[in-house]
Amino acid sequence: MTPARPGALPVVLLHALPLGSAMWRAQAEALRARGHTVLTPDQRGFGTVPLGTAPPSLDTVADDLAALLDAHGIREVALAGCSMGGYTAMAFLRRHPGRVRALALFATRAAADPPETAAERRRFADLMLDDTLRDQVVRRTTPSLLGSGTRDRRPDLVEEVLTMAKAAAPEAVAWAQRAIAARPDSTSVLRATDVPALVVTGAEDELVTAREAASTCDALPRGRLVTVPDAGHLQPLEAPDRVTGLLTALLDDAATAATADRTREDTC
């Protein structure tokens, strides 16, 4: 493993639901090769992380991340999240301000769910706990995480994502859906996040619209909106090289901004 480069900004990559940290494998490997410390934590209940007994809340997940960073002696990071990971990133911004120096939101909306969408998430959570219906629900809904072009071109990736979804603990998926359904609007949080930022949407995303992505980007003082063609909701898996390039450019922007800030401080 390439050792961390002195001064290189640590990176945190937060996974989508119902996948785990492995979805960021390509990006983590590439960024580590550039000398960044990269953390790809599993959310509670995923991988080997216990679900615990806390009621569903993304604030709890954000606090888990803060504790992880503290355990590694890391104060500030570049934070990237896909779908659920993006919602966790916004909860982290709200609960732990000043710890994010660059932000990337993939397949994520700043707005809270309207009541009907939140109710649908809670119904999905109930279905995940129903042993008689769970498998067919997972088989029916999981392919829609990928763009139509990806489904046509990459049946292997469809199977990989389906395998990851089936491996997720039903209790963890249900907990996460309820936590996402209860999240608040984060527009004001993003307006206060004056760091280099990226909002990425897939041209074939069937879950987050282009308008929602644009609204999320508009809330960020230094936001940049990028549409990835031929990709759906899981751009890090569908377009790994493009996503790695976007993250690399964002980290370069953060380094340039940090240098400029130090220069201003030195001249004051």
UniProtKB/TrEMBL annotation:
The species this protein belongs to is: Streptomyces roseolus
Q: What is this protein called?
A: Alpha/beta hydrolase
Domain AB hydrolase-1 intervals: 10-240
GO molecular-function annotation terms? hydrolase activity
Keywords, sorted A to Z: Hydrolase
